[in-house]
Amino acid sequence: MFVITKDNFRSLGVVMFLGFSSGLPLSLSGATLQARMTTDGIALDQIGWITLAGLPYTLKFLWAPFLDRWRWPFLGRRRSWMLVTQVLTLVLIWSLGQADTSRPGESIAVWALLLAFASATQDIVVDAYRTDILSPAVRGLGASSAMLGYRLAMLCAGAVALGMAAAWGWATTYEVMALAMGVGILGTLWGQEPESPSGQGHSWQETFTGPWQDFFARSGALPLLALVVLYKLGDALAFSLSSAFLLRGLGFDLVQVGMVNKGVGLGATIAGSFVGGGLMLRWGLFRSLWYFGWIQGLATLSFMGLAAWGHHFTGMVGAVFLENFTSGMGTSAFAALLMSLCSTRYSATQFALLSALAALGRVLIGPFAGILAQQTGWEIYFLVATLLALPGLVVLWNLRREIGALEQVEP
User: Fold this and answer.
1) The pTM is what?
2) Radius of gyration of the chain from Cα atoms?
3) Superfamily for 210-406?
């Protein structure tokens, strides 16, 4: 039976702290900033520019190779970049809070874009650090710990920040949020530096082509990429219009949906991720991906049943809990898979590329989701979401040997 060592426990704590510092800036340069601009009377056309601040999170794989190749002359390859980006993020959160919203909205958008760039860069190196420092057996729990920290930070930068702004004003709120980045800095200083591979980044060509050459040298590279895209596709379709389904399809009000989605849903996701991470200690990577894939796919049928049942609050709570709980289980195993597919030499670049590829299916399925729901109705919609889990499971089964090998050796 696997026993979590003192070093593993320390790493899980560090990963949770780093998850907090990754989640904190996202709302502060996005939804919370939009709320601030709205209350300050900024015109909607100027607020619209703020959505572009999310671009660095999508494009971060473009500069990820630089973080694999270069290091600062302190704390090592990973922790030095984490500290630099965390301090920069802290300064930018503080500066964004002091910005004058009476000036043209574009100036606020520039600050938000700079903050998102620093935050996305931090995400690159935090993902790489988590990949490098966690042993294969605890990667599921590591993903759960990171998710817990990330979700708590989103709560602080969202609901808590809005409450603080109402009481103390926006400048003070952003100052407090900037100081909260100290959680991540503490995690960086507390953590151990992963062992760096020798001969790192001898040439520009290796910096940008090495990650691809390394990945495609492994057995089953193309099917593995297909698995990355397909594994959470049915889950993504189920979630993409879940709020619209509850509000428009079933007639629940905003308070009910907000309470259940943000309360029950958040708690269920975190609980499911830790249950999934714990089961991975016993089952390993392939069995966990296999069982969790079936469970999260079948759980979508609860929404199909709710669509047939109609407006029923208890049923809604149960369906949201079940869907989020099983999704949390699948997410913990899926994050462990992404970490297992990365080589220590190129973990920053490869994880950024794989996570971007995983997000591609979720992004592209959005327009299809609206058309499907409108043309077929909600029951068929969630049946299709359930069936969309099958292609990923078929690919997963065909890759059982390759994934089993990932559990035996470090990539």
Assistant:
1) 0.86
2) 21
3) MFS general substrate transporter like domains (1.20.1250.20)
